[in-house]
Amino acid sequence: MLKIYEKILIVLTTITVLSTNTVLAQRDGDAFRTYSPYTLYGIGDMYRQGSIANKAMGGINYGARDPLGINSYNPAALSIQDSLVVMLDFAVGSKNIYSKSSLSKTSANTFYFDYVDFSLRIAPNLTVNVGLSPVSDVGYDIERKETDPDEIYQYGDIRYSYSGEGGVNQLHWGAGYRLFSKFSVGVNMHYYFGSINRYYSIEYLTSQSFGNIFSESRTRISKIGLTFGAQFHTRLNSATFLTVGAIYQPKTVLPVRKEITTITVGDISTDTSRNVSVNVNDIFMPTTLGLGFTLRRTDKLVFGADYTYQDWSKFNMDASSHSFSFTPGKSHTFNAGIEYTPRANNLKNNFRRWNYRAGLRYSKTFMNCNGQNIIEQSLTIGAGIPLTRRLGSKINVAIEAGQRGTIKNGLIKETFVTFSMGINIFDIWFQKFQFN
Question: Does this model's pTM top 0.90?
Answer without folding.
Answer: no
